[in-house]
Amino acid sequence: MIQDGERVTLALAGELELATAPLVGQAVVETLRSRPPELVLDLAGLGFMDLSGLRAVLLAQSLCETSKCPFYLVNGTPQVQKLFDITGLTRTLPFITPGPVAGAC
User: Using CA atoms in the order 11, 105, 8, 73, what is the torsion angle rounded to 10 degrees?
Assistant: First the structure.
């Protein structure tokens, strides 16, 4: 977790799939307990994401909406972004340009 002013970023690395997706949900729940002004999931460090990972991203968005916390995503690698493109979610999810701070969780 990286806090940069008003923004809390969870920078993901490696693979976001069936075994790791629940960890993202847990990290989002923990982060939201501190009531951050906004939450960003940075997908740039992911080399692979399956539908379980996509579901984790959508769950994170839903949890943020429930908590009234603005939610954003930083684009992943072309392989990761392809999943968002195929499902049409690139047009509906709030992708932003990455900030200067990077890390992994």
Answer: 30
